[in-house]
Amino acid sequence: MIILLAMMKMEIEERLEVTEQLFRDGLYLEALQILHRIIEEPSLSDEHLLSHIFYDIGNILMKLGYKNEALSSWKSSLRIFPDHSLQNEILQFVNPYGMVNGEQSVHDDFKAFASVQMARYLALKQQGCFSSLAEADMVMDLISDHWADIIDSGLSNHLSCSQKLGLFHRYHIDFPLLKQVESVEVVFDFQNNRLMESDTICNCGSGLPFYACCGSILDPKEYLIGLK
Fold first, then answer.
1. 90 contacts 209 by C-beta, under 8 angstroms
2. CATH number of 2-93
């Protein structure tokens, strides 16, 4: 059995060498298909190897322009096998809301505000998702109008990101036809008896701060996946 597992591991490592060559040649989709097939194999039990595969998948997704998906894959890599250099790489890549860095901090603020308000809106719907792009556009237009009010009022000026996030959760938009509920975002780690603050190390095992891992804010675009 030990010899068989060793042979399977060797075969997987040989296929990984193929994917690395495909990556260097710019054949990203072909490399991605091979990596996905490897992950699905029941014989893959080496945590270090599996972590490396998720890291490679993240690199490919980044080359293909799927930044949020790449970030998710890198986090999966860390949860399997924490690596200090990858932790630092991710922290350089994300903003204080845990999302992919935007060109300007004000864009990051808007995405965080929009994400919080979209999550509130969808939580009030029975199906928990948008029914159409038209509905999503209506909600985004309303969110954008309120964001303009926040900017004009200066409410978010001179606030830290954690303070801004608190403001975003307290801010209420009267979405049409939906009953508003109070939103308070508090996460408690019962295993270690502590409140999860933004800089608290995440309890999933990645070694990342909570804000950059399981406490990250979804990019608003992720609420639109699958809509036509």
1. no
2. 1.25.40.10
pLDDT tens column, 136-175 = 999 999 999 999 999 999 989 989 988 999 999 999 898 8
pLDDT exceeding 70 applies to what percent of the chain? 84
Enumerate the domain spans of the chain. Answer: 2-93, 105-224
